[in-house]
Structures are given as C-alpha cells and as structure tokens.
Amino acid sequence: xxxxxxxxxxxxxxxxxxxxxxxxxxxxxxxxxxxxxxxxxxxxxxxxxxxxxxxxxxxxxxxxxxxxxxxxxxxxxxxxxxxxxxxxxxxxxxxxxxxxxxxxxxxxxxxxxxxxxxxxxxxxxxxxxxxxxxxxxxxxxxxxxxxx
Length: 148
Fold this sequence. Notes:
By secondary structure, the chain is α+β, with helices and mostly antiparallel strands. The chain is built from four helices and five strands, in the order βααβββαβα. Strands 1-2-3-4-5 form a five-stranded mixed sheet.
C-alpha cells in the first residue's frame, strides 16, 4: 500500500521559510500573475505571513501587509499549481483576515485578477456608502498631460 502524502498545514511563516517562499512565487512572477518580490521584501512580510506546508515543502503563501489601524492588504497569495483546488488558498486568506481581526483592522483589501476566488472568500467591491477606491500608477502612467 502506498503512503498518502502528509496533510497540508497552514501556519505562521518563519524567517527560515523565506527562500522557500521566494521559490514558490517565482513561477507566478514569471507568468505575470504576481508582482516580483525581493528576498528582503518577502522577509519583511514574513512576520504577518502564513505558509501552507506539506511535509517540509512550502506549497502556499500569503501575507497581510498592514498599512494602518484601518487598512491592510493581502499580498503575494500563491499556491503551488499541483496543490490548488484543495482549499489551501482559502485557508491562507482566512488566516490573514483573522490576523487583521485580531489587530482590530477595519478593512482588508486585495488587488487581484482572481475576482471570483476572493468573492468566495467574502470580499466585495463595495466600500461604505458612496465611496469608491480609485488608483493611479504614477511610475507607469503619470498624471494626464493637462495637469502638468
């Protein structure tokens, strides 16, 4: 009888996980699905990050970047392609949201191309009342010519 693979576990990330996290996200960065992160950037996210591990292998990662007492963002969510569709991404998101709740952060946002996944995790487009979140990318687009 073949031994089944060990059960995946979601736990707080540790500094020694950083090289494994960097290797995990590399294919997603290459595919344009995640923004590149340096070793130092990931190391800074580790204290508020979570990993999914199967045995000694890091198969998932997500971090909560805390901007203020009111706002945080889920960053660098990735689950190894062969480990997807098993609930690990949802568990990583929940761990981040639970951390935000434990720190009394009012809102957690995510910038994503996986709208349906995050909607299934309880995220929505709305802000309270008539407010909308608007963004500009000053490095790539700059302000419109008539604002100079």
